[in-house]
Amino acid sequence: MTDTVRGPSPFWVVKCPDCSTEQPVFSRPSTAVSCTVCGATVATPTGGQAKIRGELVRTLGG
Ligand SMILES: [Zn+2]
């Protein structure tokens, strides 16, 4: 048994602060993530877990 692949879910569902669209976002992106509908930035890379600009609705996977 190993815990190396467990831990926080790799994907988050984030609600866009501008148009309220919910979309999956990788929790550790290397580039900024834009809303698929309005293009607003919903997550920015920090070198670790993304900084979410909208609302974190729930997590996926795990
Ligand atoms: Zn949007």
Question: Can you describe what's shown?
Answer:
With 62 residues, the chain is an all-beta fold. The chain has a single domain (11-60), classed as N-terminal domain of TfIIb (Single Sheet), CATH 2.20.25.100. The chain has strands at 11-15, 22-26, 33-34, 41-44, 51-52, 55-60. It has a three-stranded antiparallel β-sheet with strand order 2-1-6, with no helix packed on it. The two termini are 15 Å apart. 18% of the residues are buried. Bound molecules: zinc ion. Residues 16, 18-19, 21, 35, 37-38, 40 line the site of zinc ion (ZN).
Strand content range: 35-45%
CATH architecture: Single Sheet
CATH names the topology as N-terminal domain of TfIIb
Strand order of the largest sheet: 2-1-6
Low-confidence stretches are none
Helix percentage range: under 10%
Bound molecules: zinc ion
Strand count, sense and barrel status of the largest sheet are: 3 strands, antiparallel
- Global Rg: 12 Å
pLDDT averaged residue by residue? 89
| Tally of individual domains | 1
Under CATH, the homologous superfamily reads Ribosomal protein S27
- In N-to-C order, the SSE pattern is EEEEEE
User: Helix- and strand-based class?
Assistant: mainly beta
Query: Tell me, what's the shape?
Result: globular
Q: Tell me how many strands there are.
A: 6
| Tally of individual helices | 0
CATH class: Mainly Beta
State the end-to-end CA separation.
Answer: 15 Å
Salient structural properties:
single chain, 62 residues, three-stranded antiparallel beta sheet, globular, binds zinc ion
Structure summary:
The chain is 0% helix and 39% strand. It has no helices and six strands.
